[in-house]
């Protein structure tokens, strides 16, 4: 079981991935299951990056 990916490790790697690559995979992957995974990852990491921007001290709402 040592070869399994831990969620925290996946999140660390995901923070470094370009969102455009995830979006491209989400839109163009022919495998519907992979499409849903890429879409979920894209949405999650986009949300996290937006949260960082919104939480900045100088962000104006």
Protein model, in words:
The protein is an all-alpha fold and about 60 residues long. It has one domain. The chain is about 70% helix and about 0% strand. It has three helices and no strands. The chain has helices at about 5-15, 20-30, 30-55. α2 runs antiparallel to α3. The longest helix is centred in the last third of the chain and has 23 residues, at about 30-55. The relative contact order is 0.12. The model has no long low-confidence stretch (mean pLDDT about 85).
Let me know the average pLDDT. 86
Rg from alpha-carbon coordinates: 14 Å
Assign a percent range to the helix content. over 70%
DSSP strand count? 0
Global shape: flat
- Strand % is under 5%
Index terms:
3 helices, mainly alpha, single chain, 61 residues
Concise overview:
With 61 residues, the protein is mainly α. It has three helices and no strands. 5% of the residues are buried.
Please give the structural blueprint:
Blueprint: H1 7-16, H2 19-28, H3 32-54
